[in-house]
């Protein structure tokens, strides 16, 4: 099949941000192309950490099972600090993810970037989308015509794409796109072509990274470990198939060229990294590895792009718009989170379900996150690179300070702390109705039971990334009065003027919204047939806030979320799994009309 | 590839018992053929219930994931009884599996027999074994020569197999087998050919079965339900894909021919079954189904074969050796459990690792189970078919009696109550060392954590059905004294005279035994490197009895099993997951020598 030169979305770069985007678009049936300048994808090394929130995101695309099977699970983290007599000793072990009880996956997963990308590439391929390589953009032009820019039938971005190994066919082609996503890494061509600058600076911290199968008597080699010694710091990240990654702090003497005073990476070899690691490990032994799977050296830069988009037609994502130290395992996660945030918005707009203005929330949400990440990273990288407190160095960072900081950073590093601020799609007006269900944060995992068959159900599994808004109707206790209220509410929502019908394409509510009804009651006697049919489009859509038959899962969900079971509360979960808004029953219809009306197009525009 | 006319094992019948056996043998690389007289496999109906223990068994072969995904999960069971004013009402809902907390899978799974068989057929196919059909045995001869019967190099069973659709090739062939398994159903040709008789009798209970997609206002149609009404009894079994199976009690008037006084199945139609069900459902409505997926009528027979084997060269299994009522969902489970029990024994003997005498334990264990099952079934079927207690019928069975019996039968119907009695492979001598870990019962599920990386691990996942004996060394607390004891024990076990080396083929301990070391300690400071290397052949083999990082899984395993963490205890788990014996540290080496010596062949015989 010849490649189309008119596409809805052209993605530049097939790293984690690019493939996350391409897969999400492909799953929604969007016409997408993705190019990458590398002739073959990376095979080893690079990023390797998937944080708890990103596992949830993969699960929402149906991709977590393979990640979990192939990856290594990091449950605990050990801290090593200098002993008074030289060498290091373990001072504590703590859960690797903090707080583990609020996470669905109370651990991070490590797996090579190549294997993680494969999960997306295979999913895309099943939907007919493959990376075209080696190809790179050499020119990009965005229309200046306001009519074109405001129309969804036009293709206002023109990209000249060069095939790097073209022999028989034309070396360049022009691709006309409705949208372009530049996910082309820290040295992003797209970013530079658009004149977007990076704000922030390089640091003095220089680190080496090496992937090996270690032979050692270090007791916690199969655990995530942070070692701080008088010979420098080292971070251990266990990986799949017995691999272990070492992050090794380098001193100026190791890398700085005395003539120029500048870091010279060519002074470093993997053998040098191992020899530094050996000193840090003392008194534990680290044998020379038989093989070096991958290695690199980097100087930490902490920068955020001044803008994430041009005219909401071209976007940059991932390393193209933020760089930071890799030691908190944030890079790949932040990058994939960018395009997870962007993809559903592009799809809503391309389907003409939501207005172009929805796309403004991408920069609003993700640039703020990137800035928070950098400010966190500054503290974290400084702590990591700081000298430990010892008898000789009383001003150093103590073991307690370090592990305390590690723990307090937990909700950010796990990804579950991300909290988007107010916008058209985050309306915290009625936060009081569910005090512990924070509007702007991801819908937390929780076990409810299915009323019809008492199966335990993870609520997140009912919130797939399928571009639909999920309406969680917490109906509370099923009194007679409640049944009456629900019947009246069903009538109200069935009117053509209700938001459900007003914003659903061709009156097909289930294309745009997915309704889940959650009652408070007991599995021994709850009768879901009492709920008006409108609120149970299928028997699997009614959940109950009670424990399962073992008594070990579920129950007390209303309490957990800070909701009153005597009230009815409507929770809107965005297509990306974040709580968009919450409304009390009394004003729910009007509140929903306000909320969706702020970015959705009334169905009159469909045809 | 032409089919071999000399095979290690010939299986007759590709129902649940046959495919369980064929897959287990294929996974172990045994030379096996399996024939079935049906031209195509069953597509709908027949058995459909997988009980909690059988899910564990499937998991031990790596097959549970697909079952769980495709099947329907039965968590709860509702009871309906007559109302004083006519019609039925719900009197209670209870967990479908009792006691759910002791089960790894606290629910049964329902799925059509065809889909369950497919799971095995696909697994076998991956290993090059496929069912040959339509083919049937027409003659079977077992050698009378004692030398042949006691030799593993001879093929003492001669079976004439007829191809039922042979056109171009010979219609019959002679297959010479070392062993034959007759898994050819209730009307087993193998059983009849060997002159084995069924003991027991027909009952007067006549039931109809119908699989439909129901339209009803019966509130618990998606739950397992037992209805007892003045119009008869009905059992509801929800199934995959919205299907529901109804078991409907029929009265003599429905089926008995007044002329002959005998049951006449031809008097029954599925429409008749539905009309009986409608009466039982009253006051709830059951619409005429659009389609009948499958239906049948049966008269309950309760019989056990007088013998399960001839000369330990031909075995019968499944319905060929026991028939009973299907309402407790035992048929398919009992059948698959038969060959799960037999397969590893055949493999041990075929490899000349264990003596032929091991095979005697098949009948010892499975015939006893079948007898228990029948005596349970008599009570259960009688209860089910009895008239409910009402004002008019004061002698009937009350709702409390019925649901009480259902619950007390729970451990048997779930399959987890199976308890094999003493034999060469079940030695309860030292039961006192682990009071709650019953020798002869399956190793119960329990979460431990892996010492090296604090991953939670289900102990059953470390006990795959791989023909090896698992040695669980509970080493208790790691005191200095314990380290010394362990070092000495390691030396003792390393001697050529130790059972480990004596019974391992060519000195390859890991071919015959899998060692798992389980310590009592805390994840915050336990150091598994202190354990002598002999007891940690790989870092994943050392477990710790503590909670995982969430605090919600694991911990208190020694207490749960009734073990003293100040003592060392060795637990032997058989290849089929049952606890074979337990020994205290002091006599462990001698006890193991006694235990394995009673059925294993010293390695001198290998060559």
UniProtKB/TrEMBL annotation, chains A, B:
- Domain of life where this protein originates: Eukaryota
Q: Which Pfam families match?
A: FAD_binding_3, Phe_hydrox_dim
Where the record annotates domain Phenol hydroxylase-like C-terminal dimerisation, the positions are 418-602
Q: Which InterPro entries does this chain map to?
A: FAD-bd (IPR002938), FAD/NAD-bd_sf (IPR036188), Phe_hydrox_C_dim_dom (IPR012941), PHOX_C_sf (IPR038220), RIFMO-like (IPR050641), Thioredoxin-like_sf (IPR036249)
What would be an example GO MF term here? FAD binding
Ranges for domain FAD-binding: 6-376
For this UniProt record, the keywords arranged alphabetically read as follows: FAD, Flavoprotein, Oxidoreductase
Family from the record = Belongs to the PheA/TfdB FAD monooxygenase family.
Q: What is this protein called?
A: FAD binding domain-containing protein
